[in-house]
Amino acid sequence: QLQLVESGGGLVQPVGSLRLSCASSEIPFRNFDMGWFRQAPGKEREFVASISQSDGSDDYADSVKGRFAISRDNVKNMVYLQMNSLKPEDTAMYYCAADNTGRFSTRAGDYLSWGPGTQVTVSA
Q1: Contact 94, 80 (CB under 8 A)
Q2: How far apart are CA 10 and CA 8, in angstroms?
Q3: Which pLDDT score, from 0 to 100, does residue 64 have?
Q4: How confident is the model at residue 98 (pLDDT cuts 50, 70, 90)?
Q5: Dihedral angle sign, alpha carbons of residues 64, 59, 115, 18
Q6: Tally of CA atoms within 13 A in the half-sphere of 97 that contains its CB
Q7: How is 12-39 classified by DSSP, letter by letter?
Q8: Where are the beta strands (DSSP E) in 55-111?
């Protein structure tokens, strides 16, 4: 399995910003659809954003549209999630995921590789 590592989480005040990063030293991200998911305590893991390996198309959960932006740097082999106007309800563990089957999915079960997650806490 592809090993992914997330970073950039932390404690931020409401309306603040964070940028999450996802890296791997094993397989080029350019061959993978990449996704960000999150899971809050007591809740199921939910889709946040994804970016296609084929044309760079992106997709977002309605709850983050206009506030979050996913991007990729295939040279550095990195994927990012820029999170702006953060709200307390964005508090969760955030996970990076990769899939090379071309499904460009919003379903967690369709992603084959995952990182251990990075905690984001939005609180005053």
Answers
A1: no
A2: 7
A3: 98
A4: very high
A5: negative
A6: 25
A7: E-TT--EEEEEE-SSS-GGGSEEEEEEE
A8: 58-60, 68-73, 78-83, 92-99
The one-character DSSP state at 26 is S
Q: What SS3 class is residue 88?
A: helix
- H or E element that contains 93: strand 92-99
Place of tokens 């709200």: 87
Predicted pLDDT of residue 28: 85
* pLDDT (0 to 100) of residue 76: 93
The residue with tokens 């919003």 is 106
Which pair of structure tokens corresponds to residue 14? Answer: 């409401």
Amino acid at site 13: Q
For residues 118 and 92, the answer to whether their CB atoms sit within 8 Å is no
Which residues in 6-45 are b (16+ Cβ under 10 Å) and which e? bebbeebeeeeebebbbbbeebebeebbbbbbbeeeeeeb
Output the six-digit token pair for 113.
Answer: 């590789």
Given a contact cutoff of 8 angstroms between Cβ atoms, the answer to whether 77 and 28 are in contact is yes
- Position 12, amino acid: V
